[in-house]
Specification:
Elements lengths: L2 H14 L9 E6 L14 H10 L4 E2 L8 E2 L2 E23 L2 E22 L13 H12 L8 H7 E8 L2 E6 L6 H4 L16 E6 L3 E6 L12 E6 L3 H10 L4 E3 L7 H5 L4 E6 L5 E5 L9 H10 L2 H8 L4 E3 L22 H10 L14 E8 L2 H14 L4 E8 L1 H10 L4 E5 L8 H6 L21 H12 L3 H18 L2 E7 L1 E6 L2 E2 L16 E2 L5
Parallel strand pairs: 1-10, 15-16, 15-17
Antiparallel strand pairs: 2-3, 4-5, 5-7, 6-7, 8-9, 9-10, 11-19, 12-19, 13-17, 13-18, 14-18, 20-21
Length: 536
């Protein structure tokens, strides 16, 4: 009996047993990995970040249907100008006897810089009742800018901000290093109290250990209060155990933590409701553009034309994924709607391989044109998809060996460029500036920048110019036009193969109503969720 069959049998057994029931005043959410902190500055994983945005509130929030940021703690943002003082070095020749030496005179010169004054709402309070002030905003950001910090956000902040300074009780000035088109998205970062490190979000963290996180309501929250006061996140690594908890009644909600090949079976259970919606997470096939075989764009396009994405989505995801044409999903405000979808075309793929000099050595015989190694994580579901892709590539004479690794080993190899093919999922693609992070030539990982996002080692002067402009163009329509062109450059050059945007899938106890999914799969929908007795 396969693992899927075993899990299915357990689900049926659990559904037939007497159901347990979670408390009416608490929503129990089961996730696959532990949360470690609610402090946004020190979040180390996606679950930490989502917890931080329930406990904290940011100046802005990116939880809208089209990912356009909205004001959260702020009521007003006004552009202005600031002056910073930078050292200026002047070489000065000094005659010493018959010799001339060069000394350096260092002077400090004022340099004008773009800045924004941000006014906070006057009714925002931390969970201890103290007001949210500009001093707290400055403390939050400057503590991340501190060179001694351990925050993973330090480098990104240092690229954007010189400093953040209180200009009054409710006004903070952000001094930028350049005009910053991404500012509204960048300010989606929870503010913490200088005195207590508490947040000002809808919930307050009551308990956090290796087993669970327990949240209660923030009585001073400025926005809508949660309809169900308590939320408990339980950390359960085993996928079968998570499903049994939901079906058996000891959990209320699972979001994106269930194998999609089991969803159809789970959906038939009488006490379970399923909802799905488009997401901003991209699954992609990366190709090492420095590899002797894969540096030829024709080879990369042949691979793209051979992978039958539509068949994989139907077979492995039950249709709950949208084919991707680039980083951004179709729902995104910056998505280039005229991008074409690459459908499977084996004939054209073979022609491209012939043109690239990789002719089939024996026609319909067993000998391949060449061989590639495909690295993936050891997750069983991801391995099964890798094997399907490998089999499809065999149809054009490309032999593929799939090798699986524990994620830490796998990711280390990817960052070092020790791979040919590999597949991964992206971060939350809220901002089109991810085209800079993933494709700018300065983001190729090396010894000085080991965490660069351009792990496929793609280099394009044309793309570099576009994404640099996109970072500084404030006008939204002009910015949209820049990213339209950037998307077409990447589509043409194919440094990676965008596969699909897997839907956000949430399974809930049928008594839980009102929970709404967001494209970035945050848990803000918990605020409107409530249990309705008798729904079973």
């Amino acid at each position: 009996m396969s693992r899927v069959q075993i899990i299915t049998a357990l689900i049926v057994a659990a559904a037939c047993s007497r159901p347990r029931r979670t408390p009416d005043d608490k929503i129990v959410v089961v996730i696959e990995a532990a949360m470690t902190t609610a402090d946004p500055r020190f979040a180390i994983n996606n679950h930490d970040s989502k917890l931080a945005r329930l406990v904290g509130a940011g100046i802005t929030a990116v939880d809208t249907p089209t990912l356009v940021p909205r004001l959260d703690l702020a009521t007003k943002m006004e552009p202005t100008q600031a002056v910073i003082y930078l050292p200026f070095v002047t070489p000065v020749p000094v005659k010493i006897g018959d010799a001339v030496a060069v000394t350096r005179w260092v002077t400090v010169v004022p340099v004008p810089q773009p800045a924004w004054d941000i006014t906070l709402r006057d009714d925002a309070k931390f969970s201890d009742g103290s007001p949210v002030l500009a001093d707290d905003v400055a403390f939050t950001y400057n503590s991340v800018l501190d060179p001694k910090t351990s925050s993973l956000h330090s480098k990104a902040f240092a690229e954007r901000f010189w400093s953040v300074t209180p200009m009054g009780p409710l006004t903070a000035r952000f001094v930028l290093k350049q005009p910053l088109a991404t500012l509204m998205s960048d300010l989606d970062f929870g503010i913490v109290s200088r005195k207590t490190s508490l947040g000002a979000g809808p919930y307050v963290l009551r308990e956090l250990d290796t087993q669970h996180a327990l949240l209660g309501p923030n009585p001073y929250y400025f926005g809508k209060r949660p309809l169900t006061p308590f939320v408990e996140f339980k950390f359960v690594r085993d996928s079968a155990a998570r499903l049994l908890m939901l079906v058996g009644g000891s959990a209320d909600l699972l979001q994106n933590s269930v194998r999609l090949d089991l969803v159809d079976e789970i959906e038939t259970r009488p006490r379970v409701r399923l909802d799905s919606a488009p997401s901003v997470i991209l699954t992609y096939l990366m190709m090492n553009n420095d590899d002797p075989l894969l540096r030829d764009r024709r080879v990369r396009e042949a691979i793209a034309l051979t992978v039958d994405r539509r068949a994989i989505v139907d077979a492995k995801f039950g249709g709950r994924a949208r084919l991707a044409n680039g980083l951004l999903p179709a729902l995104h405000w910056a998505y280039a709607k005229d991008l074409q979808s690459r459908e499977r075309d084996v004939t054209r793929a073979k022609q491209l391989l012939d043109e690239a000099g990789f002719k089939d050595p024996d026609g319909e015989g067993p000998r391949p044109r060449f061989s590639l190694t495909y690295k993936t994580s050891s997750d069983a579901f991801r391995m099964s998809i890798a094997r399907i892709i490998a089999a499809q590539l065999g149809d054009v004479g490309i032999a593929v060996e799939v090798r699986s690794f524990e994620f830490a080993t796998f990711f280390a190899d990817v960052k070092k460029g020790v791979y040919q093919l590999a597949s991964m999922q992206s971060a939350e693609l809220n901002e089109p500036d991810y085209y800079y992070f993933y494709f700018h030539s300065s983001r190729v990982p090396d010894k000085t920048n080991p965490d660069g996002g351009n792990r496929w080692r793609y280099r394009s002067a044309e793309l570099d110019r576009l994404v640099e402009r996109g970072r500084t163009e404030i006008d939204l329509e002009k910015r949209k036009a820049i990213y339209h062109d950037a998307q077409h450059v990447v589509w043409r050059d194919l440094p990676i193969i965008p596969l699909w945007h897997e839907d956000n899938v949430v399974l809930t106890n049928v008594e839980l109503e009102g929970y709404a999914l967001t494209p970035n799969a945050r848990y803000i929908g918990l605020l409107n969720a409530v249990k309705v007795s008798g729904a079973r």
